Amino acid sequence: MKENSGWVSIIVPVYNVQEYIEECIRSIISQSYSQIEVILVDDVGADDSMAIAGKMLATSKLSWQTISHKHNRGLSAARNSGVEVARGEFIYFLDSDDWISPTCIEVLVESARKYQSQIVSASFCDYGLDGTFSEIIRDCLPCSETPLEFYVDKNSSVFSMACNRLIRRDFYAASGVRFSEGIYYEDEPWTFAIMSKATRVSFVKDATYFYRRRVGSITVNQKLNMVRINSRYYHLRNCTELFLTTDIINKKGVREWFARIICNFLSALVKSDLKRDDKTFFLNKLFSEIYIPTKELNRMTFCMYGLLKKISFLFPASTWVNALMFIRNFKSTVLRKIKK
Question: What is the pTM of this model?
Answer without folding.
Answer: 0.85
